[in-house]
């Protein structure tokens, strides 16, 4: 009877094997594809923008911006929306240098990109 627990312990491993469930895939996490898809969609939408579009129309198309600025200028109110379009650092945090600015003056799209932002 003393050997029964030892015999049980030695014979149990073949019966205790189980299935291994892989979550994620070949090194690509769901997080990775999420940001890639988001950046691709933002670039795709930006490529279809046209000057003089209304602010509300652009926001409906693009969704919530990553950053938002509002400037009062002598020639009107300037609003800048930043949408993430390219990853620069793998830190999980979106920064303005990873975004494309969309520039609006008095509720109308006047341009996008760094050059448009520099001209305000």
Specify the number of helices: 5
CATH architecture of the domain at 51-120: 2-Layer Sandwich
Helix content: 25-40%
Q: Radius of gyration from the CA trace? A: 26 Å
CATH fold label of the domain at 51-120: Beta-lactamase Inhibitory Protein, Chain:B, domain 1
* Cα end-to-end separation: 88 Å
Strand order within the widest sheet?
1-2-3-4
Protein structure class: alpha+beta
Strand share of the residues?
15-25%
| Average pLDDT for all residues | 84
> Count of DSSP E strands?
4
CATH top-level class of the domain at 51-120: Alpha Beta
Which spans of ≥5 residues are poorly predicted at pLDDT below 50? 24-28
The global form is: rod-shaped
**Helix and strand element order:** HHHHEEEEH
What's the story with the biggest beta sheet? 4 strands, antiparallel
Pfam families: DUF3192
Protein name: DUF3192 domain-containing protein
Layout of secondary structure:
Layout: H1 4-11, H2 13-16, H3 30-47, H4 55-62, E1 67-73, E2 76-84, E3 99-105, E4 108-112, H5 114-118
Antiparallel strand pairs: 1-2, 2-3, 3-4
